[in-house]
Amino acid sequence: MKGFLALLLLAAPNLQEILPNKAKPGGIVFLNGSGFGDQQQELQVRFGTAPGRVISAQENKISVQVPWDAPKNCDVTVEQQSQISNKLPFECLPAVRISVDKNPIEPGETTQGHFTVYHSDKPVLIFLNNASPQVVRYPQGDQQMLRTSGGPDNSAHFTIQGVAGNRIYDVDYRWGTRSQEEVEWKLPWHQVQWNQKGGTK
Q1: What CATH number did the domain enclosing 62 receive?
Q2: CA distance linking residue 108 with residue 182, whole number of Å
Q3: What is the Cα–Cα distance from 53 to 57, expressed in whole angstroms?
Q4: What range defines the domain where residue 72 resides?
Q5: Which pTM value belongs to this model?
Q6: How many domains does the chain have?
């Protein structure tokens, strides 16, 4: 009996389903199965070789954040106390991520902001809005439309200039692919339909 219990304790976790099995990097997915335990610090969830951030853990369910460096198509595994589960397939959907070189910045100082598109080589249109005009300004305009470059380095860049020092600033943006016709660029700003932040049409 003791030997049987020892085998159960050493059994690898069993991964039964991922909900949803397609999601954007940075999004939350749920892993259903068994043998996960309830100690999230003892769990590792990998998307390919990229580790996801475990949000919560129960014996039969894990919530985890999809890592930004996960491959577009990959296998997900759960490791618990050196025991590795079976693999289930997962697909990362296209997503946009913003980064800035420096935050905060001093008055008059400039830095660069970057939009990077993951898991798609198609150009997308970024609707960019300065969410902290009392802290920073954008020399090209506090409301802009940027198009990413497409291809393997699918990105767009913009300049940020400091107005008030030692304060964290924020950027508001929407993105989509529908606005690639020239007429969309001519619309007055208030007529442009924005998606939810990070969403796509």
Answers
A1: 2.60.40.10
A2: 35
A3: 11
A4: 11-92
A5: 0.76
A6: 2
